[in-house]
Structure formats: structure tokens, C-alpha cells
Amino acid sequence: MSRRRPGTWPDSLVRWYRRNRRDLPWRRETTPYRVWISEIMLQQTQVATVVPYFERFVARFPDARSLAAADVADVLKAWEGLGYYSRARNLHRAAHVVARDCGGELPCSVEQLAGLPGFGPYTTAAVASIAFGLPFPVVDGNVLRVFSRFWAIAGDVRSTRIRECIRTRLADAIASQRSPSDFNQALMELGARVCRPRDPDCGGCPLAQECEALQRGLTRDLPERQQRRRIPHLRVAVGVVWNNGRFLIARRGLDQMLGGLWEFPGGKRERGETLAETAVREVREEVGLDVRVVRRVCTVRHGYSHFTVTLTVFECELRCDPAQLRCTRPTAWITLAETDRYAFPGVNRKIFAVLRRC
Ligand code: SF4
To answer: Which CATH number applies to 233-357: 3.90.79.10, 3.30.450.20, 3.40.50.2300, 3.90.950.10?
Structure first.
């Protein structure tokens, strides 16, 4: 694909955005910090879900200094339910860098932004353009879908070749724009609301006049569908180990998936084990306690980005002195009423609801 001058579509796109943009809290008061928080929250997450989280988060941590000063457990608690918790841990790490090295303000150079934890090419371009007006185009899944249609590009849009081709053309287009911020937000808005994955609203699209897919009747065929990878499924058992009306939880290591969140001791079933045997073994291996399964509480399914899990929960009673507890990670004995003080993966909230009914 050759480089060519953008047509009139960038101006049409920005005009459309200015007439149709949604009233969102991070657009009402635009500071680099608020742009940053909103862009991190919006990754993989719907706008409607993000809005209340955003408002609570910036009320609790109004700037990079207050975020840096917070305990990571409080940041994870504020993030609880939003998923992809590495985003929260990276925000916290980046806030430390900003507070320590940049006087508490996000730097306005692309090189410095790109060096912060959690700043990949998309976030760097989004913050640089929206917060500082720098001409770097955002390229994410939505943008790739829109322009695979607009320029009728065949092939796997996730491939480096096509991604870079689209980025290069968008860089040409944004360079001529007076407001790189509006241009990028217009791209995001168009991908979310008009050029949708299944039913693009071509009748309401500001790019329709120049859209090659529309002119060639290819809007349903692009982007080309790639074969989905089969994602693994895990069978996991966990133990709710009671002691004097309290049960045991352990905090996951910060470098693990769901790092910093709390969980019941448990793990993957090994070959030849029953799930009850898995729970007993995992409790012994993880926290050094001998337990006996009293009953199965529930079985819940949960999906993560790279796998799905069926998790079976067993209530267990101690067969040893609780002082034998040995764990390299932080642990706590808590009541059901105290669960709100800790950040848990979403699947645990389902389990607590069942335990409360027991
Ligand atoms: S005209 Fe239709 S297919 Fe083309 S960019 Fe607009 S919404 Fe997408």
C-alpha cells in the first residue's frame, strides 16, 4: 500500500465528532492526569462501565502525587471489578515515577511518556495527543477495524505489516489537523459508535463518501475474520478454611496475574485427583495446614482473557493447630462481613454471595 495524501475525510471526521461527541467526565475537565486515568481504564472496558470507576478513582486519588502516596492495596481495591489488574499496578508504579522524577506532573514528551510503566504505543499516543496536542495517531482494535473497511484492506489486521501501514497513513492524516486531540477522539468515537464490529451504521458515518468497503459492498467481509485460537480451560479447587468463624485468605504476589488481589488457597487439579483431594493438597502446599473437606459449596465458571476456569469451592475444617500456618505471602483470617476491606478477583464475589446464603 502506498502513502498518499489524505482526502477530505479527516475534516469530515472531526466535524462529525464535534457535533456528536458524548459528554464524558474526562472530557468535561481535561487534565493530563484525568486523560491518563481514563485511557488506562478504557482499555478493554466499555465506557458505561468506566464512568463510575473513573469518578470514584479521581475523587479518591485526585493527582499523581496522591496516587503515588497510596498503598497499592487501596489502589487495587478502587479498581476491584474493573479487571486486568496489571493496569492498576502499572498506574501506581508510573505515579511513583511521575511524583519522583517529574514534579508530580505527567511529562509532555512522547519519549518520556513511552518510558512510563503501562505506556504502550496506544496509551502514549492517546495521552500525548489528548493531553498535550501532539500529532500521534491512536491505533487499537477499533481503529484497525474502521480503516480495514475504509481502505478495503484484506488480510489479518492484527499483523504488524497492516497495523504499521494503517499507522503510517493515519500519521499523515493527523499531521494536517489543528487538533490532534479531536482527531484521535473522533477515531475512538467512530469505532465505538458507528463503524461497529457487526452492524456498521454506514448511513450515519462521516467517512461514507470515501469508504472503499461501502462502495465495493465489502462492509460485512472486512476486517477478514481470523480463526480463533482455542483458549485453555482449567479445573481448579479452592478451600474455605474456617477457624472460629473466620476463614483464611492469602494475597497473590504482585508479579502474578491478578497480582495483589486476595484469594482462597487452592489451585489446579492434578491427574488422578478428585477436586476435593486437590483442595486438601493445595491448602497444605500453599499455607501448610492440614484440612478435611466438609462439603462442596459451589462450582463457578469464569472467563479471563487467555483462559477459562471452572472453580469448585469446598468448605474445610482444620485438622491441625492454626499456628502451623506457613505462607510466604501475606495471609488473613477474616469474616464474610470483612470481605469489603480487601480487593478480590470478580469470581470471589460470586462465591461470597453463595457463602452468605449458606
Ligand atoms: S462507511 Fe460504514 S464501513 Fe465505512 S467506515 Fe463508515 S461505518 Fe465503517
So the answer is: 3.90.79.10
